[in-house]
């Protein structure tokens, strides 16, 4: 059975997992021959996808320009950084499990003896 502290830790862990599923990390690429430059765009809400302008500003470091001036919009590609999502889920899960174990009543009673 979970004590009060463990329930709070579990609730916070579940809340963090939900937030990491609602705000996804995106990566942008500029498709060229050879090596494609890519940049981390940041976190966006699950229903909002980064625009071509976001990709352009991230890769080239130029801000404040109209999307009409972008060179060949079809060469920009954005996608969810799934490897980062997996790492986030693993880290949150392991920390939550570790903290639940750390604050277990059995462990505390062993330390008191």
Mind explaining what this structure looks like?
With 113 residues, the chain is of the alpha+beta class. Helix 1 packs antiparallel against helix 3. The model has no long low-confidence stretch (mean pLDDT 84). Strands 2-1-3 form a 3-stranded antiparallel beta sheet, sandwiched between helices. It is built from 4 helices and 3 strands; from the N terminus they run H-E-E-H-E-H-H. It is 50% helix and 19% strand. It has one domain. The chain starts with a helix and ends with a helix. It is elongated.
Which structural traits does this protein have?
elongated, alpha+beta, 4 helices
How would you sum up this structure in a few lines?
The chain has 113 residues and is α+β, with helices and mostly antiparallel strands. It has helices at residues 4-22, 52-60, 82-102, 105-112, and strands spanning 23-30, 38-45, 76-80.
Task: Please render the helix and strand layout as text.
Layout lengths: L3 H19 E8 L7 E8 L6 H9 L15 E5 L1 H21 L2 H8 L1
Helix pairs in contact: 1-3
């Amino acid at each position: 059975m979970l004590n009060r502290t463990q329930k709070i830790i579990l609730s916070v862990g579940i809340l963090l997992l939900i937030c990491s599923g609602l705000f996804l990390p995106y990566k942008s690429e500029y498709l060229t021959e050879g090596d494609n430059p890519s940049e981390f765009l940041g976190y966006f809400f699950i229903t909002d996808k980064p625009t071509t302008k976001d990709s352009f500003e991230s890769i080239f470091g130029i801000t404040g320009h109209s999307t009409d001036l972008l060179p060949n919009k079809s060469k920009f590609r954005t996608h969810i950084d799934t490897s980062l999502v997996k790492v986030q889920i693993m880290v949150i899960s392991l920390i939550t499990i570790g903290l639940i174990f750390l604050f277990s009543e059995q462990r505390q009673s062993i330390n008191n003896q």
